[in-house]
Write a structure and sequence with these properties.
With 485 residues, the chain is of the alpha+beta class. It is built from 16 helices and seven strands. Keywords: Membrane, Transmembrane, Transmembrane helix.
Length: 485
């Protein structure tokens, strides 16, 4: 405290140190990614157009997934905390006008430099949304998974998105554990609204944080070397994949944190439990439907598409009733069945006799068959309702979180934002031109294409014969094993 003026030598104020969202994950690329996912679902019957949209969305989401792996494996660890003694300031100080987050009623604080990585919310928005879309597409769409290679590709992308989603959620859980950050300023010089790191000098920190802070504000020449009005200890931290000069620091106020509310709808918006519960439910339903494809079980459900199920709803219901009725009425081929049928015509059946078919193995098997088919049908319909709702709810929630992280680094007018849209447009134009190659090709080009196609056809016929020989060999070995046993 300066005895002549009665003002403190310096003040401590709570700060927020963060790396802003990278330009590749700003609003325009993210919204373009959402649009590509919607376009992939709408145009999945067109073939080439859906491949362009889905390929562009998958590669963008794959980049975000890889970043989550790096962020989790090399996350920033807070430095060892150190005490810093500060001038004691009363709670009713007049400095609150210039320093709304000033530290009062204490003479010591703990310093542990750390910084927020705001890319965490952006990459989570991309990988989780990608997973919530790619998995139902593999479960529902036969157009996109009609061959083994394409189906295998979906499995690879789904595994990548699942791993990226897990890493993004794990990294997001670490963010609230970061310690409170502080900045130290002269009481006569309020901090800027936003300060960027212009490089940390090793000489600014001597032995301890306490000594460094007091030496900086006790020596005017050393304070002039800061290049800023305030002393920010968090500027000596680093984040992987980031330049140190892109680190920002602002005064922590109510506007820099997500507000809280006691209303029901606001509780739904701000709580992670509702969103995470929907994601887990959607994941379980779609994984069960995906696993059902590989089980050796013959179901009466013709397809996982709503249109097909609605058209065949009558046949599905009739097949359910037919199997139950056939199980209740035993076959009349055996002498015992014929004798029971003749006796039933001359003698009135008792109540226990009427209930006897229900306790037979045949009825139990038919009932379980119908029950499993009904569960599959319910799971498909419920998944078709839950999955779109989960995607919309998650995108609205995560975009609200990103909105509270602060404004984007670039506006849509800058090339770093609209370049992604132009590249997708050029890719669509190029793919469209390639689909017209047979209409604009010359006779020589068509003849060359026919020769190449014939060679490829011969190769495919040889591969088919080789696969048939392998299958016959496997069946012969299996038959020999049964005969030997």
């Amino acid at each position: 405290m300066d005895n002549s003026t009665g003002t403190p030598l310096f003040i401590a104020s709570e700060a927020l140190c963060y790396y802003p969202i990278s330009t590749i994950y700003n609003s325009c690329p993210r919204y373009l990614f959402y649009a590509l996912l919607i376009a992939s679902c709408v145009t999945r019957w067109t073939g080439w157009l859906a491949d362009v949209f889905l390929g562009a969305a998958a590669t963008y989401a794959g980049t975000a997934a890889i970043q989550t792996f790096i962020m989790v494996s090399s996350s920033q660890k807070p430095q060892d905390p150190g005490p810093v003694t500060i001038p004691w300031i009363p709670a009713n100080t007049t400095l609150l006008k210039e320093f709304p987050s000033i530290v009062t009623e204490t003479d010591s604080i703990q310093i542990s430099p750390a910084s927020l990585e705001l890319d965490a919310d952006a990459v989570m928005a991309i990988v989780v949304t990608g997973y919530l879309v790619f998995l139902p597409l593999q479960c529902w769409s036969r157009v996109l998974t009609h061959d083994r290679a394409r189906n295998l590709l979906f499995y690879v992308w789904n595994a990548l998105m699942l791993a990226g989603s897990i890493c993004a959620l794990v990294y997001a859980a670490r963010i609230p554990k970061l310690p409170i950050q502080y900045m130290f300023c002269y009481p006569d010089y309020p901090p800027f609204s936003d300060t960027s790191n212009d490089g940390w000098q090793a000489s600014w920190r001597t032995s301890t944080w306490n000594t460094s802070v007091w030496d900086t504000f006790s020596n005017l020449s050393q304070w002039n070397q800061l290049g800023d009005i305030c002393f920010n200890p968090c500027f000596n931290t680093t984040q992987i994949l980031r330049q140190a000069t892109s680190l920002h620091a602002v005064t922590a106020t109510d506007k820099t944190t997500v507000p809280t509310s006691r209303g029901f709808w606001n509780a739904v918006l701000y709580s992670k439990r509702y969103i995470y519960s929907l994601i887990i439910l959607c994941l379980i339903l779609n994984c069960l439907l995906l696993t059902y494809r590989f089980l050796p079980y013959r179901s009466r459900i013709p397809s996982a598409q709503v249109v097909v199920l609605w058209k065949d709803r009558g046949n599905i219901w009739k097949s359910f009733k037919r199997e139950i009725k056939s199980a209740l009425n035993p076959p009349l081929s055996s002498p015992r069945s014929l004798e029971e049928a003749g006796t039933a015509n001359t003698k009135k059946k008792s109540f226990l006799t009427e209930l006897r078919p229900i306790f037979t193995r045949r009825f139990l098997k038919a009932f379980l068959h119908v029950l499993v088919d009904a569960a599959i049908l319910f799971g498909i319909i419920f998944s078709m309702i839950v999955s779109p709702f989960t995607i919309v709810a998650f995108v609205a929630w995560i975009e609200f979180q990103i909105y509270n992280d602060g404004p984007s680094q670039e506006s849509p007018r800058q090339v770093g934002q609209w370049a992604y849209l132009v590249s997708i447009a050029l890719l669509v134009i190029s793919a469209g031109i390639l689909t017209l190659k047979y209409k604009i090709a010359s006779s020589t080009e068509l003849q060359n294409e026919i020769e190449e196609t014939q060679k490829h056809l011969e190769y495919l016929e040889k591969r088919k014969e080789a696969c048939s020989e392998i299958q016959r060999f496997d069946l012969r070995d299996l038959r020999d094993q049964f005969k030997g046993s």
